[in-house]
Write a structure and sequence with these properties.
Order of helices and strands of chain C: HHHHHHHHHHH
Number of helices of chain B: 19
Shape of chain B: globular
Structural class of chain B: mainly alpha
Largest sheet of chain C: none
Distance between the termini of chain B: 38 Å
Chains: A mainly alpha, B mainly alpha, C mainly alpha
Structural class of chain C: mainly alpha
Radius of gyration of chain B: 21 Å
Oligomer: heterotrimer
Order of helices and strands of chain B: HHEEHHHHHHHHHHHHHHHHH
Largest sheet of chain B: 2 strands, antiparallel
Number of strands of chain B: 2
Number of strands of chain C: 0
Helix content of chain C: over 70%
Strand content of chain C: under 5%
Chain lengths: 241, 490, 319
């Protein structure tokens, strides 16, 4: 029962619930800038949870993981996205969500599904943080939902990063973090992915004049789709096709 | 400095060097030279493993055994031949203005980084490092798919990035679950429980079935996306057809193999823990689905590279089916198929690259009369397609024959959809190939400068493997079969 | 027998205290709001003077007003009085808490709202109908959120009896419960909607087209209006005391000793004053939402309550 856990363990559970709340806020947030800030908040709350888990479980390498999370997910990636948004002049963009309440209920359904999926793990685990495994899976699945439903590229990138947040969280609470070398590798991958996304935004903007990914529809299997242009006879670099 | 370290560090350092000099005229030659050194080191390492048995590196970070040693050599070899092909091809692209100097540097540098990440994935002992390398392989090729910066290329690269990224994230969760299950069994104080050698060792016993099943499902979805299993395949035709042709060759020939290798490694762990053959059944289901769907989609294609990408999906589906079925015959066939498919597919893509340069387009209905205009290309394409469709005496026929034999022994009714699918795919390929090779060439079509030596070497190797598999290779396959399926072939 | 009598006496006194103190809370809220808006404020007991004034005034009734119109103020006030008797203000372990649990409390509110809506429709004016339909829409969306929050709290305490639940939370000491955090936010948003505060409804508006609750009672005057106004003040106080009881119950008296009761009275006064300030700050910062945005607001309240329930089941139960 909750009352029997130490105050630190209760704090872990509280902050895990707050991370889930940020996931839901991102799901319903239509404007770009608040979305980026909420993502930064999620990273910060996640770092706090990691520090608490490091204290409770006495695994000092989690402090390093927490510092990595803060550096990457709270500072670097939101800064990168913010700078790109301003550079590409889309910081005031917002998108129309078709059915926001349906989306939020879908998120709640994902939480229930994650709870069901994580039951065998929770039963096996002897860790103090085992109750939060379901929350971590839910954060990952809600990140995926964000990627599927949203139309702007920035929202899709944030969904992807939010998925990584959920995965990192699940590693922290189910196994007190993976070996440091693996964590470093994952962090490196995330960093490179963020940089590549940034490069992509510029390409997408140049090519489509917008970051609405629904406009990416030239390649498809339908027979009477736009016929593929002569790809070899593309104009020389420097001009748009 | 061990051979393994040389094999891994050479492409990494090469990538760094080429980032600075990749656009110079000798950049292509440096690329080839680095690949040759890598191949030499990997071959030496392979001979070493053949003589002395599996090799566990210092700190147990890397592990070379019978399963991945020939894949390492194959990757280095195909990388080298593709580099030989890419040198004049990319020079031609630069002359045509499709690629700038900066992008050429990026291309060469990322090419080597890509080879490095694949070799890292193949030789990693730590499951987490395996994941990191797979993700890094995706990341290093994303910018290359969009190299030409057309709207289609950018769309293909974005789709590739997003879909593979989501898929690979699921694989990370599966890895975390495996780590969790291992911790339950082995205790958390050890720091080596993410090592495959430790997990596979006999003293481990069964990991918790419920958790391992969940982990395998996530890993199948994750790595299966990279293998190109239907319904997670939609990035593959786009990514393989929009990038420059050398990229298509290595992506189709090598990366799919590495992803399948990762999947089979994990399956080996799962089989030891589960009493039922759930993992195998899942792989069989997905494999058969991919095989059938891809064969049908082959008929609808208008772009030559897309058509051959669907052929890749079909063959990967076949291999997944074979590995899923288990048993010595099917496993041996699948291992052989991995090798010959890689060689044949890369050869085909090289030929297709030349063919599209010749015709000035990638559309199937605009390419005509290859054999009249430049017989080397025409014959190359014809023989390559014959090989990939499974005609004797090429190697693909042997592996498919072994697979069919195994299917008829274990699951007789499944042999029917397999045969039908093979027929459908054959029909699709030749229906499109026939007018391309034998049709009336359009006026003014001139031969292009083409070095068909890599193609010839690959096809010759495939023919050799079809006629008689050399002893050392067969020995490797048998060892790997024993390792994967637990049963010896003899 | 003797202790029973004492308990019932205490319960009766508490109920009367509740009813008598309700206008004081409203006065405090108005005063703080005036200060925040840099206006000269009326004294804290101004609502008492308003009620007294209304009680003295002559009533004007429409010609087609039925018995319903005349009886509704008493029904509403009676329901609020019963609700006030149930909610522990200064002491737990009162026998009146066994009359109704927290779900019946919600039912009392629904009863009052139902009859007020009917009264709004009774005369047949356009504004009455408009107010009735708007109020019903808001409450239809708010009630599930409230019930979800209340269920979350009851699941933790394993009872729906308010008195026992408060005592359970008091005994548990300082426990960080995420379900309580979410339920607090959800309940606060629902309270704002039900008590007709900003951002759902502006209690000080004079423009009929922007009214939700006020529109239903436009036709009331004199003694009836006094009763209805008093009833809404009691409703505000009930919600405030509910929040205090569930989430910050420290200081409430567990026995009837004079010392404990005195401490409890001081504690609850301080907490209510603080809640009043928070409410005023909230109302000053936010603007009234347009009617078609209110369902979104209440949807977020429902989501928060649902999250509270989910975090209780997922995070707080289990070994």
């Amino acid at each position: 029962m909750l009352a029997e856990l130490s105050l630190f363990s209760q704090a872990i559970i509280l902050f895990a619930a707050l991370v889930l709340l940020t996931s839901f806020i991102m799901l319903g947030q239509m404007r770009t800038m608040p979305l980026i800030f909420t993502f930064a908040w999620q990273g910060l709350l996640l770092a706090v949870v990691t520090v608490l888990v490091a204290h409770v479980s006495k695994h000092p390498h989690l402090y390093v993981s927490a510092a990595l999370t803060v550096g990457l997910k709270v500072v670097l990636i939101p800064w990168l996205l913010h700078r790109l948004s301003v550079q590409l002049n889309m910081q005031y963009d917002s998108e129309e969500l078709a059915h926001p309440s349906l989306l939020l209920l879908g998120g709640a359904a994902l939480v229930i599904f994650s709870y069901y999926v994580s039951l065998p793990i929770v039963h096996l685990s002897g860790l103090a943080t085992r109750n939060t495994i379901a929350v971590s899976i839910a954060v990952e699945l809600i990140g995926m939902l964000l990627m599927i439903v949203r139309r702007t590229a920035v929202a899709q990138v944030i969904g992807f990063m939010s998925m990584e947040n959920g995965l990192f969280f699940s590693a922290v609470v189910s196994t007190y973090g993976m070996p440091l070398i693996v964590e470093l590798g994952v962090a490196f991958d995330v960093l490179v992915a963020a940089i590549l996304f940034g490069v992509f935004f510029i390409h997408l903007r140049d090519s489509l004049d917008s970051l609405d990914v629904n406009r990416l529809n030239r390649l498809s299997e339908a027979d009477d789709a736009v016929p593929l242009p002569e790809t070899i006879s593309a104009p020389p670099t420097g001009t748009h096709s | 400095m061990t051979l393994l370290e040389i094999t891994l560090l050479t492409p990494l350092l090469g990538g760094l060097v080429l980032a600075f000099v990749g656009h110079r005229p000798f950049g292509g030659w440096i690329n080839v030279a680095i690949c040759a050194v890598t191949f030499g080191a990997s071959l030496a390492m392979a001979l070493d493993v053949f003589a002395h048995g599996p090799h566990l590196s210092r700190g147990r970070m890397f592990y070379i055994d019978a399963f991945n040693v020939y894949l390492v050599a194959l990757t280095a070899f195909v990388g080298m031949t593709s580099a030989i092909f890419s040198r004049p091809y990319m020079r031609h692209e630069v002359e045509r203005g499709r690629v700038t100097a900066l992008r050429l540097r990026l291309y060469h540098s990322m090419y080597q980084c890509f080879i490095f990440t694949m070799l890292l994935a193949l030789s990693a002992n730590n499951l987490g490092i395996l994941w990191v390398a797979m993700e890094a392989a995706t990341l290093s090729t994303v910018l290359l798919v969009s190299l030409y910066r057309t709207p289609e290329a950018i769309e293909a690269a974005w789709k590739y990035f997003i879909l593979c990224g989501v898929g690979i994230a699921q694989a990370l969760f599966g890895t975390v679950l495996v780590y969790f299950a291992a911790e339950q069994k082995l205790g958390a104080e050890r720091d080596d429980i993410m090592l495959w050698t430790v997990l596979h060792g006999a003293q481990v016993g069964a990991l918790d079935p419920a958790v391992i099943t969940l982990a395998f499902v996530f890993l199948l979805v994750g790595y299966g996306t990279k293998v190109g299993l239907v319904p997670l395949h939609s990035w593959l035709p786009d990514a393989h057809s929009e990038g420059p042709t050398p990229m298509s060759a290595v992506l189709s020939g090598l990366l799919l193999n590495v992803a399948l290798y990762a999947l089979v490694r994990v399956k080996m762990l799962v089989d030891a823990s589960l009493q039922t053959n759930l993992a195998g059944h899942l792989m069989m289901g997905f494999g058969l689905l991919s095989f059938t769907v891809a064969g049908l989609f082959l008929h609808r294609q208008h772009d030559i590279k897309r058509m051959y990408s669907y052929s890749s999906i079909e063959h990967m589906g076949l291999m997944t089916f074979a590995f899923g079925m288990g048993g010595p015959l099917a496993t041996y066939g699948a291992l052989l198929h991995m090798t010959v498919h890689s060689l044949t597919k890369s050869a085909i893509f090289v030929t297709v690259g030349h063919a599209s340069q010749l015709a000035g387009t990638q559309r199937i209905d605009k390419i005509r009369g290859l054999i009249r205009t430049q017989p080397a290309i025409g014959w190359g394409l014809l023989i390559g397609t014959v090989a990939i469709a499974g005609f004797p005496p090429f190697g693909v026929f042997i592996s498919e024959f072994l697979l069919l034999m195994a299917t008829m022994k274990a699951w007789p009714w499944l042999a029917i959809p397999l045969l039908v699918g093979l027929g459908v795919a054959f029909a699709g390929l030749f229906r499109h190939l026939q007018p391309m090779v034998f049709g009336e060439p359009p006026p003014g079509q001139k031969p292009v400068e083409a070095n068909m030596l890599p193609v010839a070497v690959h096809l010759f190797l495939v023919l050799w493997l079809g006629l008689s598999i050399p002893a050392f290779l067969s020995g490797w396959f048998e060892q790997a079969t024993l390792l994967i399926s637990g049963v010896s072939l003899r | 027998m003797d202790s029973q009598l004492i308990a019932w006496a205490h319960a009766a006194v508490q109920a009367l205290l509740f009813v008598a103190a309700a206008p004081l809370l409203t006065g405090w809220v108005n005063r703080v709001k005036c200060h925040l808006q840099n206006r000269a404020a009326a004294p804290v007991w101004q609502p008492y003077r308003d009620l007294a004034k209304l009680l003295r005034k002559r009533m004007v009734l429409a010609e087609n007003a039925s018995w319903l119109f005349r009886d509704v103020p008493y029904i509403v006030f009676g329901a609020m009085l019963l609700a006030a008797a149930v909610v522990p203000l200064v002491a737990v372990r009162l026998p009146t808490a066994a009359i109704a649990d927290v779900i019946v409390l919600v039912g009392f509110f629904a009863l009052a709202r139902f009859f007020t809506a009917l009264a709004g429709l009774d005369i047949g004016t356009a504004f009455g109908g408009m107010g009735a339909s708007r109020e019903m829409m808001v409450s239809a969306l708010a009630e599930p959120a409230m019930l979800m929050a209340v269920f979350t709290l009851s699941m933790t305490a394993a009872t729906t009896n308010l008195s026992i639940a408060t005592e359970y939370i008091l005994q548990a000491g300082l426990v960080l419960r995420p379900s309580f955090l979410f339920a607090l936010l959800g309940l606060a948003m629902v309270a704002v909607a039900e008590c007709s505060r900003i951002p759902v409804d502006n209690p000080a508006t004079h423009l009929e087209l922007t009214m939700l609750h006020e529109a239903m009672i436009l036709e009331y005057s004199g003694r009836y209006l006094a009763l209805i106004e008093w009833a809404s003040q009691i409703k505000l106080m009930i919600y405030a005391v509910l929040i205090v009881d569930f989430f910050f119950p420290w200081g409430i008296a567990r026995d009837f000793s004079p010392a404990a009761l005195a401490i409890s009275a001081v504690a609850v006064t301080a907490k209510l004053m603080l809640l009043g300030v928070v409410l005023v700050a909230w109302e000053t910062v936010l603007a009234k939402k347009r009617l078609f945005r209110v369902p979104q607001f209440l949807g977020s309240a429902f989501l928060l309550s649902l999250l509270g329930m989910l975090s209780h089941v997922v995070l707080e139960t289990g070994g």
